[in-house]
């Protein structure tokens, strides 16, 4: 069945829209101010990116998942001349976004009509400063994107000091995230995670942002940034992360599973 794709204009802002696919809110884009991030988890991506790789330094970024291209637009606005590759298999969705939410001239954003694993496999070693994984198939993260093999491929494409920002989703007691974190830890020396307090406390399903790198991450600085955010969130690393999300068997391609769908038919994901 064909999915309906439409835009909802933000009240009071002529150039700001929410992209919906099949009735679910996928992306928010402010054409007049691409540095303005509205969705809470996207703000966390921006916070983390700005702390780890402060603007305006040029970056090479790979985005696994595109939709409305919110984060690529943010990078282009805050770090002009950055080279960005977006791996988005839904060519029809990309065409719709290009027509109705056009990219600025000379944005440096290139969209490839391919899935994440195939697109990563075609990339050379040590290509990217940052990989942003924010891909959903309907309401779930595709199974093949949170396995040991997937994370190994991402680590290969990243430069030695590169970082992965992976937007995943689950609900306490986090059976999916425990396995995804275990898989990420097979490829990266350090992994931290951030989420809204209500998600950590088990009160709601939510987006959890994994940050992973081959070198140590500034956990204390990330926690200070989280506490000062417009929508405060919690960052867990080290023993705190293992206490919350440890004990899982790593996903592999042989036993991969997608993230759980939001309960109760929620209309927002990723």
From TrEMBL:
SUPFAM superfamilies per the UniProt record, alphabetical: S-adenosyl-L-methionine-dependent methyltransferases
Domain of life: Bacteria
Keywords: Polyamine biosynthesis
Keyword flag ATP-binding: no
Name of the protein this chain belongs to: Spermidine synthase
């Amino acid at each position: 069945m064909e999915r309906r794709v439409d835009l909802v204009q933000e009240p009071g802002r002529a150039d700001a829209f929410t992209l919906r696919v099949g009735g679910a809110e996928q992306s928010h884009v402010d054409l007049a101010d691409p540095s303005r991030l509205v969705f809470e988890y996207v703000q966390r991506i921006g916070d983390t990116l700005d702390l780890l790789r402060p603007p305006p330094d040029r970056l090479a970024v790979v985005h696994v998942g595109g939709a409305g291209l919110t984060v690529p637009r943010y990078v282009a606005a805050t770090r002009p001349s950055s080279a960005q590759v977006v791996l988005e298999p839904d060519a029809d969705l990309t065409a719709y976004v290009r027509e109705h939410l056009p990219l600025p001239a000379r944005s440096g954003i290139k969209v490839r009509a391919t899935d994440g694993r195939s697109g990563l496999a075609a990339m050379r070693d040590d290509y990217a400063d940052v990989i942003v994984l924010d891909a959903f198939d309907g309401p779930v993260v595709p199974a093949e994107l949170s396995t040991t093999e997937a994370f190994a491929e991402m680590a290969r494409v990243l430069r030695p000091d590169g970082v992965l920002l992976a937007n995943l989703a689950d609900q306490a007691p986090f059976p999916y995230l425990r396995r995804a974190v275990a898989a990420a830890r097979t490829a990266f020396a350090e992994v931290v995670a951030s989420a809204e307090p209500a998600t950590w406390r088990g009160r709601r399903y939510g987006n959890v942002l994994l940050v992973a790198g081959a070198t140590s991450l500034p956990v204390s600085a990330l926690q200070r940034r989280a506490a000062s955010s417009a929508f405060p969130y919690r960052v867990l690393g080290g023993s705190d992360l293992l206490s919350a999300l440890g004990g899982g068997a790593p996903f592999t391609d042989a036993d991969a599973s997608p993230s759980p769908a939001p309960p109760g038919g929620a209309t927002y994901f990723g």
